[in-house]
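FYI - complex with calcium ion, inputs then prediction.
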Amino acid sequence: MGASVEQLAVNTIRVLAADATANANSGHPGAPMGMAPVAHVLFSKFMRFNPKNPKWLNRDRFVLSNGHACALIYTLLHLYGYAVTLEDLKRFRQVDSITPGHPEAHDTPGIEVTTGPLGQGISNAVGLAIAQAHTAATFNKPGFDLVDNYTYVFLGDGCLQEGVSSEACSLAGHLQLGNLIAIWDDNHITIDGDTNVSFTEDVLKRYESYGWQVLTVSDGDHDLEGVAAAIKKAQEVKDKPTIIKLTTTIGFGSKLQGTHSVHGSPLKADDIKQLKQAFGFNPEQSFVVPQEVYDFCNKVAAEGASKEQEWNNLLAKYAEQYKEEYEDLIRRQKGDLPEGWEKHLPVYTPSDPAIASRKLSENILNKIFSVIPELMGGSADLTGSNLTLAKGTVDFQPPSTGLGDYSGRYIRYGVREHGMGAIMNGLAAYGTVIPYSGTFLNFVSYAAGAVRLSALSQVRVIWVATHDSIGLGEDGPTHQPIETLAHFRALPNCMVWRPADGNETSAAYYVALTSKHTPSIIALSRQNLPQLENSTVEHAIKGGYVVHEQEGADITLISTGSEVGICVDTIKELAKQNIKARVVSLPCWEVFDAQSKDYRLSVLPDGIPSLSVEVMSTLGWERYAHEQFGLNRFGASGPYKDVYKKFEFTPEGIAKRAVATVNFWKDVPNIRSPINRAFEQLI
Amino acid sequence: MGASVEQLAVNTIRVLAADATANANSGHPGAPMGMAPVAHVLFSKFMRFNPKNPKWLNRDRFVLSNGHACALIYTLLHLYGYAVTLEDLKRFRQVDSITPGHPEAHDTPGIEVTTGPLGQGISNAVGLAIAQAHTAATFNKPGFDLVDNYTYVFLGDGCLQEGVSSEACSLAGHLQLGNLIAIWDDNHITIDGDTNVSFTEDVLKRYESYGWQVLTVSDGDHDLEGVAAAIKKAQEVKDKPTIIKLTTTIGFGSKLQGTHSVHGSPLKADDIKQLKQAFGFNPEQSFVVPQEVYDFCNKVAAEGASKEQEWNNLLAKYAEQYKEEYEDLIRRQKGDLPEGWEKHLPVYTPSDPAIASRKLSENILNKIFSVIPELMGGSADLTGSNLTLAKGTVDFQPPSTGLGDYSGRYIRYGVREHGMGAIMNGLAAYGTVIPYSGTFLNFVSYAAGAVRLSALSQVRVIWVATHDSIGLGEDGPTHQPIETLAHFRALPNCMVWRPADGNETSAAYYVALTSKHTPSIIALSRQNLPQLENSTVEHAIKGGYVVHEQEGADITLISTGSEVGICVDTIKELAKQNIKARVVSLPCWEVFDAQSKDYRLSVLPDGIPSLSVEVMSTLGWERYAHEQFGLNRFGASGPYKDVYKKFEFTPEGIAKRAVATVNFWKDVPNIRSPINRAFEQLI
Ligand SMILES: [Ca+2]
Ligand SMILES: [Ca+2]
């Protein structure tokens, strides 16, 4: 077979993808085989990358939004010389390999974002493109186009059907993100069969309605030049993102090509054999890469390396002329915050007035937003409620709108929580930006799919989640979170904060901002909260501490957020009944759990019973408290004080349950703190 | 002011909405005031309804998707004579009123679905329209157009921005739902100000791309005839849903009309005064309805009542000619299942082979699908994985596609989990259908916003949530749920099932199908599970029971789903170390919690320590077990047995922790079962 090296490279991708999935006896060969041509064209002719430094700032970003096709990207990473070996391809989908069943950014060099859950990757890509535009507008100078990379995305029908991508892509059109180029694998196949069963909309027309450029390549199986021409045209349009509809044959080369049989199951042995034969490979061998393909790819990679070298030279000159900007850029990439930033966090004393914690959060943002230039804020159309806009902030907007510019640091996400979450993941993944965004706590749930990936992919993303309980009052049960904190507390590597006052809110921001690899949700009240007696930032950054100590206490009241102050008020109520109560604030379980056992036992000691108080689901509170007072039902619409009263979250209501707790545990000798466990958890 | 009664009716709505929000000192007057004209036209000229019987099957359905505008619908319900009094309007947004801050279907007569969380209502409406088309295709006969109602929706910009509505509306276009008519309140205002800051897409073009008819009315403030003409045109097109872009002035009549100041805050006293003056109302009085407006509305209502009477006559004739269909229809509306249906639930004995619970679920569907004709299935493009398609089922599809017809009972949702969840809520709300749908458990989280509303609005909706744990194996951490069960266990009025074998799976379906007012999530395994010794449907419908009893046991192992069998295998392992273990299966916490305390204590007795075993977050297990073995981290990609081994979910790994548990609790006298609590929870 006298195929050109280009065609051979394409077929090598196909064969390796078939080998990897067959060897694992698991995975999705169809999309990699169908998308091999476009992947080859993109990586060999357009993508700017240096496999030896996958973190080079000005690299083009590649996102495989149809993450189930990961055999494709693993194969590419291997061919072009990233630290992904043939051995790694053989360990595809095996425990502890760097080639898991879907691409995970923190596992594999060259993977930008964690994808697989459909619709996320394309939405992350919008974030990557925003970050690029913003970083360019912030750091580029005349003669110094330091940052001008493209963001390329492959996506399938599934990604287009998911609402999260609709949200993100509508915003991308509004924002005129010209450096974002999406390539839609239009193979007409989904798991349920033909896309005709459920997906007959005119996708390109929809993207036009969003303000995207739309292009078509009708023979994605063979027309490498058409593919190249389309990508070039996409690059040329600077004020619109582009989507290229690329018609391909799923599982190209398989006997079952074009059917959904090749979507999610490896090819059979005889099918792989004929595939290899047809492509000029030895049918008896697996995981073979022709040397000329390696040579070809190495050459491309070497060009990439020299492009990085040129860029490094440019950066060195930049460092001379723009020292301050240079140092800022280097610092940001390390993930370090500016020296001394934490001195700007507000601190409070008990004599300060009661303030809603959403307002405390605004105070913090007003203080630190100018000190931490990599902060990029936003809200899902609740700016005035979330109080997420620091004073004097310019909007991130296309300059042509007259509403801001790309150096602006506040994103108007619209009512698009899920898109916002996925975009924040992309913003964080870019490497020069720390995103935070606001919505009501209840609607963080709309973004659950994205929050989960923040946690899994270990990105620093902050949710300013206001209106955090029945305390929001009149909006009622549709807006009052009950299950939300339990949900995200159960999510690994996600910090959930519910600060009780000013110092705790500052502590929440401190830990959220200094945790480079963990997202945070900061739950904030609509109603005013008093400043507590023993609250300091130093105490609160431990995740839990004693707000009120009492010699010979009969009970520990453990609480968070707006209920801590009510628990403090309950002390007097209990004193009337000769019960001595101590009060603990536990604003962040995850952080508290990371403290030494000695410390935790000093906060939640043996010998006395404890009662948790939080106006939402009690689920999980059994981990810290012997008894739990919460709300295992939906809330109610009304002025918040009436709602609190209805559910007895008052000093009297809490005291009643505290008395019951003391009585119930009276007969138990040597009461054990729940901190004591028989064995360590898997974390 | 010589206004016609029509104009007076419009202005009465505006004034009452202003009064209600001002009186509550909370709420959203702007949209009700802007949409008063279209609401008046719709209710007086088009809507078919009888306020005296809000449950009349063939009524037109009205959905206020922009639920924050609920002062509008409460006002309409009052004016037309539903059981909503002026007093109720005065108690708007007060605790325990029937006029809460957002419309709740189970609270207020005339409210079809619970809205407020944006994007949900329009998506529910798609479900209502599907149910209408399906019920018509199933029950209508020549000369008997029993079911031919329309579904009308009001929605705002926020609803259009939410991805859930994109998903549902794309599907609605595909399904050619001609009886669905949406009216978009195009007032250019969102909370963040002008929609220009984030929402500049061409909405109508987008809806055209979905296959909708799109219409425009440019003066929604005054052009009542134009509004009527548009609705008429919408009714005439039978094979497309319609969206009408209606340009209105938010807060029409207020001094601040057209600004976002009137969106979410009541009008000031002087503004209301001038409003009333301008509209010919006494500025010193509140909550006043001119008698001629009542008269006008009463006349409309009376016409509605007589239409129902005509329909009842038609139904009586139908009952004679189509006795069986008639009885089926009546039964369905009561929510009762066909007599004896439960006899079709499969039962198993321990000698039956090990079967994956997703397959057990398929077996059930194959048995009961023909017995319970109101079941409507579906999947978010994972039919072959979820095994949700009962044998021989016809697709619900527009006949013109040649892929099915409207009497079909299987919906191809596409990769649209959130849309699917919201559509199921609409299907259930219609009253003649019980929806179930499949996706991976992990992706039920994408639909969290809709699941929450299933629970709050008390609808019977079933999620067939397969691939329920790390047991799905190779797909890896992006697909392996960790936090999901904790999330939905914490959600009130939502049953989470994780059956361990065949009888437990039948029990899960039994309880899910007979719980008329509670949604269920049934978590099902990909891997095979053995049939357990003591498992029966009767035991499992209690939510928890003893799988293996042991005299003088040293420990209780408590588990769910795929881990119960491993716990049974652990008995032998522990016996080697002279530890006697009993095993409890707890497939549904919510149902177990509803059993008598005596029963619960018989399952989880005092005196011995207990250990929970479940391959996901331990959060909440402290409620039942003294110690917890789970996975408070993300999973791993690999063959499932390897993954279980990696995390030590093997008889050896469990035994190790059981020994630690026994040792740790050895010194504690009179160990108390966690079932014992100091006081009752608020549920
Ligand atoms: Ca967490
Ligand atoms: Ca629940």
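Chain B touches chain A through 139 residues (CB under 8 Å). Chain B has a mean pLDDT of 97.
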